[in-house]
Amino acid sequence: MEISSKEHTHFFSNNTVLPVDQSSFKSESSASKEKQSCCGGIKIFLGALSFVYFAKALSGSYLKSTITQIERRFDIPSSLVGVIDGSFEIGNLLIIILVSYFGAKLHRPRIIGAGCLIMSAGTFLIAMPQFFMGRYRYERFPSTINSTVSLSPCLQDKSQTPLSALEKSQAKINAGCEKEAGSSMWIYVLLGNLLRGIGETPIQPLGITYIDDYAVEENAALYIGCVQTVAIIGPIFGFLLGSLCAKLYVDIGFVDLDSVTISPKDVEWVGAWWLGYLIAGVISVLAGIPFWFLPKHLPKPESRKDSSTSSEHSKFIIEENKDQRTSYWQQAKLAEMAKEFFPSLKNLFGNPVYILYLCASIIQFNSLIGMVTYKPKYIEQQYGQTSSKTNFVIGLINIPAVAFGIFSGGLIMKKFGIGVLGAAKLSLGSSFFGYLLLLSLFAMGCKNSDVAGLTVSYHGAKPMTDYEEALFSECNSGCSCSKNDWDPICGENGVTYVSACLAGCQASNGSGKSTVFFNCSCVGTFESSQSSSAVVGPCQKGNECPKMFLYFLVISVITSYTLSVGGTPGYILLLRCIKPHLKSFALGIYTLAIRVLAGIPAPVYFGVAIDTTCLKWGSKRCGGRGACRLYDSSALRYVYLGLTLVLGTVSILFSVAVLWVLRKRSSPQDETLSANRERGACGTKSRKDNFVNSDQLIQSTYWPEKETRL
């Protein structure tokens, strides 16, 4: 709690004799009490905000970990999955300007608490389709589904199949078509993610500025670094939760698991993607509870007592005498605050440092969002890993490296007292070396799996004709096969065949996962073939893949750390290059731009680009293209990494421009500062030495009335 200046003067005049102005000091005991109150309040808010960051990061990362599961469950292409992923940013777009501008004037903690409730509602909505749509169906030859009817995979004559079996199969397909025709359940996932975006909106602009307003200025960078570091723990648990759920069958609890004939190694496997969303929704509810009990304002630190930077809320109104500001603020209405909206917007976009850094961030986030969204898919398709293992690796290895990098950036800023110019250098350096390391990943890929008719011919040579036409050969010409099926089997020659029918298999033995096919004419004609048998499921990737995957992990961890070091310096650069009373508004505009120009389009065009590398598309029960079953590994590597690096290079160029503008501004001010420091003639107001590092790089118009009393 604060003590009035009149009480200060009376206290000091009765108890002490000082050689300077007594009204400028407090007693040690009162100052200590206020410091404890201030520090205690900001630390409670810091803990609550960290938990909210954890909750939102957990649900967001869990969505990333279930991208391939959602794609397979709803049988949709990557481009449509990108639209679903981008709907989160659309939710932010709807209200972010209103929240960041007007939210700074209202009860910020309670607005954050309300956002948590909305976020949890959206998370629950994402999981709802599992309880309304039918059981998951995958493509499998009838003999592998514990059937008592013995069928030949190669149906040389339609009469081979018993009429009752055909009628039963067709009836199931027709029933499935009727159900699919009446619903597009992926829309619920999109709407739920949209609602998540709306709820998450106030957390960043209001939470970060609340800390920056009431924390001691030299601790602000460390606090922000701590919040972002704790937030990284959310993705760790999110991906680990995704790994656990990916091992569980999608319909666990609804079907007999012994009847499931596919394993997590199959492309058609879908884990219990919905289970994690229920857990994430409960965590979001719990995270919002503390904010309903936090105060609207905290005591201001002693170092910010008389600084205009600490009274952010009063600066949105047209400035008058300091004595009249409080009463004027209390009488202000929303309409009067709105009058300052466009002048504030013009002020922000008239700042070249802010604009250039905004452009650099937009391009870089396009690169990073696209890369992170499809990283699980890239690892699965490039290195032949299961969804469960992929999520486990990302959560346990990659994410901690990001957390350590973000914390290191904040610690370096505090340890060495780095100012705005130094923050710009650190951010640029981390981006440059990070993307340089990413370049080496081009050499760490796996060759395409040998799939007859797609990546190799039925005789061992590379196919030169259209992929779909190449699926048919002399060895399976006598079979009645469909080119739309995807029920892969692995021949003893190490080649994968799209289906047992296309492999020309004449007989099978066993059921379920243990089914073995015999007398496969296409397997026997392969140049390296010694046998004509095959087993259920695709063949594993080449022997060099495990080693390449290990190299990929090492470089990926180092790259993640390097890129993350520049995160906190970038935040500080953003906060220090604008007028202090526009911090909330500037962060809101910054977040809006990232959402609209990076978060929404990046997953979509990355998904479209990745779809172009698909070799074999699945087919829906009622016709139409489903999810991709097989990608061209080489093309996927060049598209995924190439797009990431091109965008990263453009962002580096903008970062260089930011550094150039800051250097240009700092040079004349450094000379003025060294010549007139004692007279306090830097800009329009004098600055205390401990603020020089950050303030001397910005023009005086950006930091009006900043001063401290000794």
TrEMBL record:
Residues 469-524 form the Kazal-like domain. GO terms for cellular component: basolateral plasma membrane. InterPro entries: Kazal_dom, Kazal_dom_sf, MFS_dom, MFS_trans_sf, OATP. Keywords: Cell membrane, Disulfide bond, Glycoprotein, Ion transport, Lipid transport, Membrane, Transmembrane, Transmembrane helix, Transport. It catalyses: 3,3',5'-triiodo-L-thyronine(out) = 3,3',5'-triiodo-L-thyronine(in); L-thyroxine sulfate(out) = L-thyroxine sulfate(in); L-thyroxine(out) = L-thyroxine(in). The chain crosses the membrane at residues 40-59, 80-104, 110-132, 220-250, 270-294, 354-372, 392-412, 424-444, 548-575, 587-610, 639-662. GO terms for molecular function: bile acid transmembrane transporter activity; sodium-independent organic anion transmembrane transporter activity. It is found in: Cell membrane. It holds the Pfam family OATP. This is Solute carrier organic anion transporter family member. Residues 45-666 form the Major facilitator superfamily (MFS) profile domain. It comes from the Eukaryota. Belongs to the organo anion transporter (TC 2.A.60) family. GO terms for biological process: monoatomic ion transport; sodium-independent organic anion transport. It is a multi-pass membrane protein.
